[in-house]
Design goal:
This protein has 78 residues and is mainly β. The chain is 0% helix and 53% strand. It has no helices and 5 strands. The chain starts with 5 loop residues before the first strand and ends in a 7-residue tail after the last strand.
């Protein structure tokens, strides 16, 4: 590790939103973060995508896509 409070991470997969994106992350207790969650807004839907720490020791540190949760307001007719 370095004396820097942050490190560069690369998000890998699944589509264009977040794929191969390089982001700056803070170290947590002096270590790389295990999971990264990012939110994306599209209309009335919010998607939360999760990436898990991959294998690699050279920046950017790889994070592999593991899942997505979409939340949209209920469409109930009265």
């Amino acid at each position: 590790m370095t004396d820097n409070p942050t490190y560069k991470a690369e998000l890998i997969g699944p589509t264009t939103l977040g794929n191969n994106e390089i982001i700056e992350l803070p170290f947590i207790d002096g270590a790389y973060q295990d999971l990264v969650e990012l939110s994306f807004e599209a209309g009335d839907t919010t998607s939360v995508r999760t990436w898990a720490l991959g294998e690699g020791t050279v920046e950017p540190i790889p994070y592999n896509f593991v899942g997505e949760i979409d939340s949209a307001p209920p469409s109930v007719e009265n």
